Amino acid sequence: MVSKNMIEYDSTSPVKSDMNNCVESGIPGFDKFISDDENGIGGIPENTSTLIYGPPKTGKSVFCYQFMYHGLSKNEPCLYLTTDYGIKQLQQRMMDFEWYLQGYMQDQMVYIIDALSSLSGTKMTDTSIYKPSSVQNPTDIMVKLGVGTIFVYRKSPKFRSIFDSLKILLAFNPDMLVVRILKAYIKRIKEAGGTAIIAHTEGTADIEIEEVIKKTADNVLRLDGELIKIERMPGIRKNEAQYQITDGGLIVL
Amino acid sequence: MIKKSFIPKLDDLLGGGIPEGVSVIFCAYPGVNSEAFGYQMLNGRLEEGDNGFVFTNIAEPDTITYEFNSYGWDLETMLEEEQVFFVDGSSHFIGAPPNGRYIIEDYSQIEEAVIKAIRDVPNGIGLINNLSTLIDYLGNEDTLNIIKKWNEIAKEKKTTLVYIFTEWDYDKNFIDEIKNSVDCVVHLKTIEERVIIGQGFMVAGASWTKPSDIMVLFFVMQPGGVKVYIPKILVTGPYNAGKSSFVKAISTKSVSVDRQALGTIPTTIAMDIGHLDYKGFFADIFGTPGQERFDLILNVLSKEAVGAFVLVDSTAPETFGRAKEMIRKCRAEAIPKIIIANKQDIPGALAPEKIREMMKLGKDIPIVPAIATEKKGTTEALDVLLTLLYGD
Amino acid sequence: MLPVIGSGIPGFDKLVSNEKTGIGGIPENTSTLIYGPPKTGKSIFCYQFMYHGLSNEEPCLYIMTDYGIKQFQQKIADYGWDLGSSIENQMFYIIDALSSVSGTEVVETATCVSSSVHNPTDIMVKLGVGTRFMSGMSPRFRSVIDSLTTLLAFNEDMLVVRVLTAFIMRIKEAGGTAVITYTEGSADTKIETMLKASVDNIIRLDGEQLVVEAMVGCGKRNAPYIITDKGIIIKE
Question: Which of A88, A239, B51, B100 sits at a 20 to 30 Å CA gap from C99?
Fold first, then answer.
């Protein structure tokens, strides 16, 4: 395991980040919205975990798709853990925004762990970048995540990671176990140098659990359908802005 | 009577095998394939003619049968012949058709159902997959009590009880209590350098023997199951740093392939290959060529390696830049590395800490002084490697 | 372009139509939750959705938990709709989960099976068979659960959420489009949020207004509606 100390100390680190240590979100207006006033350049801080939460249908998944797709277009691979939609629906939903995943799958730029499709009763066959798992089996999800991080890390030490979302896991497992999975997930991605986004539907866990979930991530953003709010992002002041979901994805106004 | 575990090397670590009626827990760091261990033990015992059961709360019985199948093990026939059965703690909770001798419709029924199952397979084997999921439903205290009760009955019935346990972020004391409640604890660990680059198992304790503290690296094949993994260890470094001598010094046997170019200083143009057998740790050693034009080989090899020795000639600071570049290549592939400050016997050799300073190396990267030609410092280097790989 | 299918409700497709293309309907291969207080026309929405599909040769897999097959046929007849030929052509697949509970016998056929609201597992098994039957008939079909409310009354809440998740997965994988009803307030807020989060589209009926709270490819919309002897009609 690498201590933080070493990353800072050793100048040979290949995880050479951009000058501002930020990851572009791909959401028009968003990076500017969260930019801190001193540096003037924004984006999601690299190698952090960001929780995006809010009521149902407020664009959390769209945020995830957009974030992934933008990364792919910049040659940053993505590790995608999907529990809300099977692979087919994921592709279909992205296509609604004219984001096409197929090519990136062929180029092995995206690694997908599909924990939902098995529920449909069909046995999915795995490929080098597609691993079926089960929402009932967190141990198996973590095994596949372990293999997935190696895969994307070797593609590029600068990679993105999405976990969409906690909701179905909460329906199939005890709440506390879901928190444990979340912690293990964040640890795994951050150690590998990735930048993680986790989506969560507000109100699908008890209040105490929701508080723990919020504490687990470095950054917390809330989407309520009209406003996007920075609830926590170290070094960035709390702020809110209006947003819209358009044919081209989210736009922060 | 001693039973086999059917996990390669595990019986050796356990003084020959597993006595009847004991409980074994596989404690896995999240990310390690622990289920394969349970499935493999169960399958082995069934094939020997013993009876068994699987308690599942992580997948419907059909899915588990399918998993067995993907390992190449025929659970289906044994289910039909009632040599093995399920305690189905999954189906009901997801609205799938239950399928097992005992069906759980409420978590309060688990204790009794598993007790019945244990009694059904005297001298056999029972698999509990997964203990972690049980804990958050039942609470710590109740889970501990249940485990103790199950283990007692298993002892009485001479049934082997195997638990699959993923060590999420539970309270340390609680994890200790769980481990103290069973006869044998096997840790399933990861070797990490940013990502998981290897997996190993190690026996942390067994009530009937003093287990050896060797970590056995493994990988899981489908089909095939748990196999012992002989990892690759790289020996790299700039031209003329002493890699060949080092490979020779740490290997039980070694050979240089394609040694052709003989100039004023002989150099390896392909590689030195050796085999390491140190304190029960086996590995294949690959000494890579130092010249830049062979960097491609370095890239290929470092993808498969779990550790690297980077040799530097302590008397030649002008080569440190090149050494640094080679470290970077290994770093890119995320493998733990150790710097060997070689040729310490030659006048003018720099001390390890001086080298660290000149190379601007983080203090987490170990530097070991050595004289490869005299096999000095090589044992120390190997010990450091094991510490890096095994973790704490 | 997002493919849509006709809802069968006069005025609805126009209400949710795309501003540019003018095309509207229920997005194909998605799941839609219809919720609201009791007696606001949720079931009627389902009848119309089902009937419109059948008239367009789209088969329908119908899970009824609020009424048995006999009452269902009576209600449909009240609106002057005839299911005779669809049943004959095996275009209409019924899982009747109520009759067995109310003590009414169901005459089972190849496309009409009896299950029980007490037994979600059995419903799921029959759903599996039904889905295979549907996808064998047509690559595009409709499916209805009317309603979740009864299931919630007889089973653990979270189990119903899991069953719903599996239902939606199965229908979508097979190429179907699903409509699910739920009576507002019959489960706690957490479960209600789970239900809303589990579907793609959400429509609320309150007796006067039809509110599209969420729909793929279309923002929020709403319009007044009335229930007539021809079913729901959206007013301009």
Answer: B100
pLDDT in tens, C140-169: 999 999 999 999 999 999 999 999 999 999
**Candidates C4, C21, C165, C191, partner chain A, best to mutate (most A CBs within 10 A):** C165
Taking the C-alpha atoms of residue A2 and residue B193, their distance in angstroms, rounded to an integer, is 6
Mutate to test the interface with C, among B93, B106, B137 (most CBs of C within 10 A): B93
CA distance B94 to chain C (A): 6
Burial of B218 (0-12, 13-18, 19+ CB in 10 A): buried
The beta-carbon neighbor of B362 closest among A1, A5, A183 is: A5
Encoded tokens for B82: 């009632």
Chain B residues closer than 8 Å to A181 by CB: 30, 168
Contacts of B98 in chain C (CB under 8 A): 121
- Please, how many CA atoms are within 13 Å of residue A174, restricted to the half-sphere of its CB? 14
Q: What whole-number distance in Å separates Cα of residue B127 and Cα of residue B130?
A: 9
Q: Do B192 and A191 touch (CB under 8 A)?
A: yes
pLDDT for position A13: 38
> Contact partners of A by the rule of 3+ C-beta pairs under 8 A?
B, C
Determine the pLDDT at residue C65: 96
Question: What's the angle, vertex CA A107, arms to CA A101 and CA A111, rounded to 5?
Answer: 65
Per-residue DSSP letter, B171 = -
- Distance in angstroms (rounded) separating the CA atoms of residues C82 and C77: 7
| Contact call for residues A34 and A20 (beta carbons, < 8 A) | no
Cα A66 to Cα B216: distance, rounded to the nearest angstrom = 43
Instruction: Give residue B268's pLDDT.
Output: 55
- At C217 the pLDDT is 83
Domains annotated on chain B, with CATH: 2-228 (3.40.50.300), 232-390 (3.40.50.300)
More reliable by pLDDT, C86 or B331: C86
Domain boundaries, chain C: 28-201
Contacts of C among chains (3+ CB pairs under 8 A): A, B
CB pairs under 8 A between A and C: 69
Give the per-residue pLDDT at A104.
Answer: 97
Partner residue opposite B97 with nearest CB, options C125, C159, C162: C125
Instruction: Write out chain C residues lying below 8 Å of B96, CB-based.
Output: 121, 124, 166
Interface test with C, best of B91, B94, B108 (most C CBs within 10 A): B94
Measured in Å, how far apart are chain A's first and last C-alpha atoms? 42
For chain B, which residues score pLDDT lower than 70? Answer: 258-270, 330-333, 392
* Model pLDDT, residue B331: 63
What would the two tokens of residue B375 be? 């096999």
Which of A209, A184, A210, A115 has the alpha carbon at shortest distance from B168?
A184
Work out whether the CA dihedral C194, C199, C205, C210 comes out positive or negative.
positive
Low-confidence ranges of chain A (pLDDT < 70): 1-20, 36-41
Architecture of domain C28-201 in this structure: 3-Layer(aba) Sandwich (3.40)
Compute φ and ψ for C95, nearest 5 degrees: -110, 110
Is the Cβ pair A93, C213 closer than 8 Å? no
CATH of A65-194, one of 3.40.50.300, 2.40.40.20, 3.40.47.10, 3.90.226.10: 3.40.50.300
Residue B284's CB: how many other CB atoms inside 10 A?
Answer: 15
Return the number of other C-beta atoms located less than 10 Å from residue A46's C-beta. 17
Q: How far is B314 from chain A (nearest CA, A)?
A: 20
All residues at 6 or more sequence positions from A41 whose CB lies less than 8 Å from its CB, including other chains: A19, A20, A22, A31, A35
Collect all residues of chain A within an 8 Å Cβ-Cβ radius of residue C219: 245
CB atoms within 10 A of CB B276: 20
C89–B contact, CB cutoff 8 A: no
